[in-house]
Amino acid sequence: MKHFVTATILMVLLIASFSMESCTKKSDEAIDGGALAKDTWAIIQDDILTLSCATSGCHGSTSDANYAQHNLLLNSTNAYDNLINIISKNPEAKKASLVRVKPGDYMMSLLFQKIDCQTPAKYGATMPLGGTNLTSGQIEFIKQWIIKGAPKKGSVVDENILTSNTVCSQAFVPMTAPATTEGFQLAINAFTVRAKTEREVFVNRTSPNTSTVYVNKITMQGRPNSHHFVLYGFKSTTSLPPVNTLRDLYNTDATINITTFAQMQNHIFLGGGTDVNTTYTFPEGVALKVPPATAFDLNAHYFNIQNTNLIGENYINMYTVSQANVVKEAQSINFANYNFSIPATSRKTITTNFTFDKEVTVITLTSHFHKLGEKFQIKILGGTRNGEVVYENTDWEHPVVINLAKPIQLKAGEGLTSVVTYNNTTNKTVNFGLTSEDEMNIIFGYYH
After folding, report:
1. Residue 18: what pLDDT?
2. Is the sign of the CA dihedral 435, 440, 442, 445 positive or negative?
3. pLDDT tens digits, one per residue of 397-441
4. Structural element, H or E, at residue 138
């Protein structure tokens, strides 16, 4: 009897132990069918980042042409450590104290800001750039993961969120034009960018002012997937392109439109760049003089890697001040090196000197190069500050624009030096050119 009681007790304990183990296992299982739930981070990596972001030319490897600009790999080996509490190279995100992913705070996480197409464009273009936006479910899934602390292990977000597969669409609303007493608006009206192509267009617009005005602020706006938006004036007004006509840089067979290309040689840079949603304000007392009915050439460049057509559309507001408030007239800097080449699979630094033929005060500097550009430095040439680095940019998509707190005083014969480093990861020589596959080397800015 004693042995029977002992055996019975042991049997009860074994059954209880098995039951407890079963409950524990069930608590670790997905609610929807018995299989162990996949880690939330693993889903983000495998089903979102790997497919949409860690692709060739974007965030796939250090050999990607864009890597020097963002220093962000999103492949399965590096992504998590490259995101959590890491400071971004995006200058506007730095100013706002954002990090790539801040556990618990999606609004202070640049990753969320970049994938949510409904978020105002404060930090550059929506990602994936040139591709299809993420779905509302994918965006919400990442948002909830961040809110839950952005863990690497554990299932912390309901996978059913991912069933919401509507692609995020950005409602583009043209900005309001200034009142006629405060300025004017110019535009490139909506045009089509065909699937798997890029398109660069120009439109010659005439300013509506009937008397000379002085512009002290320029605000620009463009649709997603725009490589750049630039405002040009013309060196000579004797032979201008047709007014209000969309002109393509490339023909339908991808060859350069010779007429448009020739018209570009008459350009003077007046504003804009690769950040198409931006505002530039001149220093106090400085403004750009705009005579009546001035001809402006608006230039937009879009690229589309999707299987469907996209729409391009751009606006620029030019805000004016009374002439009585203008002490100095702004003049445009357009220093370009048109004659250089970068051998295949090589890194090369190109130094170019530019000089002024009169005494000037430089008030604003920015730069322009393409995706092979790693670093663009501007140094002072001549004078007591000779060789001083006054500008540096490592982000070709969002070049830094500096309104100089300490203006650069230069005498005739002195000037600026560009020191530009390129990393040609392609298997062909790259030269100066007008497409996103070519390169550029230009100092833009203003002086008076």
Report:
1. 39
2. positive
3. 667 778 787 899 999 999 999 999 999 999 999 999 877 688 989
4. helix 136-147
Best CA proximity match to 1, nearest among 9, 222, 157: 9
pTM (predicted TM-score) = 0.70
Say which residues have a Cβ less than 8 Å from residue 314's Cβ, sequence separation at least 6: 187, 188, 220, 221, 222, 223, 226, 229, 276, 298, 300
Assess whether 256 and 309 both reside in one domain: yes
pLDDT score at 309: 92
Provide φ and ψ at 89, rounded to 5°: -85, -10
306 shares its domain with 372: no
The helix or strand, by DSSP H or E, that contains position 20, with its residue range, turns out to be helix 2-28
- Angstrom distance (rounded) from CA 94 to CA 123: 10
Answer yes or no: is 23 within a domain: no
Q: Which residue has the tokens 């949603």?
A: 277
Any domain includes 316:
yes
- The total of other beta-carbon atoms located within 10 Å of residue 140's CB is 17
Q: Is the peptide bond before 128 cis (omega within 30 degrees of 0)?
A: yes
Instruction: Give the model's confidence band at 271: pLDDT under 50 very low, under 70 low, under 90 confident, else very high.
Output: confident
Q: Identify any residues that bridge with 329 across adjacent strands, giving them in sequence order.
A: 287
Q: Which domain holds residue 239?
A: 177-325
Residues 235 and 263 both lie in one domain: yes
Residue 275 φ then ψ, to 5°: -95, 100
The encoded tokens of residue 120 equal: 């105002």
Interior/surface letters 82-104, b for 16+ CB within 10 angstroms, e for the rest: bbbeeebbbbbbeeeebbbbbbe
Task: Give the pLDDT confidence score for residue 68 in this predicted structure.
Answer: 63
Listing DSSP states for 355-382 in one string gives E-SS-EEEEEEEEE--TTEEEEEEEEES
Residue in the structure block whose two tokens are 């969309």? 246
